[in-house]
TrEMBL record:
This is 8-amino-7-oxononanoate synthase. Residues 29-378 form the Aminotransferase class I/classII large domain. Its cofactor is pyridoxal 5'-phosphate. It holds the Pfam family Aminotran_1_2. It comes from Arenibacter nanhaiticus. Belongs to the class-II pyridoxal-phosphate-dependent aminotransferase family. BioF subfamily. Pathway: Lipid metabolism. The keyword Methyltransferase does not apply. The lineage of its organism: Bacteria, Pseudomonadati, Bacteroidota, Flavobacteriia, Flavobacteriales. Keywords: Pyridoxal phosphate, Transferase. GO terms for molecular function: pyridoxal phosphate binding; transferase activity. It comes from the Bacteria.
């Protein structure tokens, strides 16, 4: 076997020295406070059976797409799914991608053009940053969730580049902080300045909205954005993503988004699973009955926050009303230790270390689910309280 080049070995060694070496985790049977499976759909037998039934009813017995969607991979299920998504999320059109990463690099590498400017929140996901970096547009970050700083950035761009198209990019729920921007203020600012607002709703769909349509829909702002990116690997418990917007945007992406054009389509079972999940959210087996797990999840989030206050732990957490809650524990060594201590008590809580987050902002990331019990949440936070007290002695 050919050895790894020495300069790459050095980079790995540096990661190990800094307690930042990433390794694939081993599956465990701990109480889940780390996965993105907020509604439990990834392990929902009803969804599995519904997906299988969809395939049987359609007479589909193939395992793969057989090619890109522009060649042989555009099955009838894609048409059904994109029509359902457009209706469910109250948008003109939807285009399915193989993953959230593919959707973001496809959109941001192809839509902003040379001479355009992209202004993005400094905490936007790596896939957004990578896509922006692949475009020919200029790009600048603005301070996290700071509408005033964004306004100043827009003014600077407009004073220098009067003909530039400006894209403003944010997330409705940030994956590493769990907080949310003022989407209504952003929509007003973008409309007033002729900017195109793009929002990644990866961690909001399935969590916000009566049926899980996302935070923009809950705030009735879905018609005020140029594009929404939604993913199915979080609360939807499956795989894939979609970009929501106008029919013209969909046509443009089909023609110019390289991560869409040059990849094999999703297998039929993946499409059927996405269909099944949305049917379950829409009806829960009965017409007009939303999926009850969303309310259970919301109740658990409220309970988690209430216990933080009762135990005096809220000062260590980034404020959040989403399913993601982060306790700041500076230092890779310390946050790994705390994670290990919670693991020994039976709780799966992952440490988020630098360089994933800035040095000094390492944290424990708690993900709340509809299937977590109040007893589990309370026990977890009592163990965390003990760790906090021990660290302060």
């Amino acid at each position: 076997m050919v050895e790894l080049p020495k300069r790459l070995q050095i980079k790995l060694s540096e990661r190990a020295t800094n307690n930042a070496l990433r390794q694939l985790p081993i599956a465990n049977h701990l109480i889940d406070f780390s996965s993105n499976d907020y509604l439990g759909f990834a392990r929902d037998e009803a969804v599995f059976k519904m997906a299988s039934e969809i395939l049987r009813n359609e007479g589909i017995r193939t395992n793969g797409a057989t090619g890109s969607r522009l060649l042989t991979g555009n099955s009838e299920l894609y048409g059904q799914l994109e029509a359902l998504l457009a209706k469910f999320y109250d948008t003109e059109a939807a285009l399915v991608f193989n993953s959230g990463y593919d959707a973001n690099i496809g959109f941001f590498s192809s839509v902003p053009q040379r001479g355009d400017v992209v202004l993005y929140d400094e905490l936007c996901h790596a896939s957004i940053r990578d896509g922006i970096g692949m475009s020919n547009a200029q790009h600048y970050k603005f301070k996290h969730n700071d509408v005033e700083d964004l306004y100043r950035s827009i003014e600077r761009v407009k004073s220098k580049n009067t003909d530039s198209i400006i894209y403003v990019v944010t997330e409705s729920v940030f994956s590493m902080d769990g907080d949310a921007p003022d989407l209504e203020a952003l929509a007003i600012l973008c409309k007033a300045n002729g900017c195109y607002l793009v929002v990644d709703e990866a961690h909001a769909v399935g969590v916000y909205g009566e049926k899980g349509e996302g935070l923009l829909h809950q705030l009735v702002q879905q018609d005020k954005v140029f594009a929404r990116i939604i993913t199915f690997g979080k609360a939807m418990g499956c795989h894939g993503a979609a970009i929501l917007g106008s029919e013209a945007l969909k046509s443009y992406l089909v023609n110019f988004a390289r991560s869409f054009i040059y990849t094999t389509g999703l297998p039929p079972h993946s499409l059927a699973t996405i269909l099944a999940v949305h049917q379950r959210l829409e009806n829960n087996g009965q017409v007009g009955t939303p999926f009850g797990g969303i309310q259970t999840l919301k109740n658990n989030i409220q309970f988690f926050n209430a216990r933080l206050i009762a135990l005096g732990l809220e000062q260590y957490f980034i404020p959040s009303n989403s399913a993601i809650h982060c306790c700041l524990v500076p230092g890779n060594k310390q946050v790994k230790y705390w994670s290990g201590q919670l693991r020994e008590k039976g709780f799966d809580v992952k440490p988020i270390m630098s360089p994933t987050v800035p040095k000094g902002q390492e944290r424990l990331r708690f993900c709340i689910h509809s299937y977590n019990s109040e007893n589990q949440i309370n026990s977890l936070l009592l163990h965390l309280e003990m760790l906090v007290h021990l660290s302060e002695k």
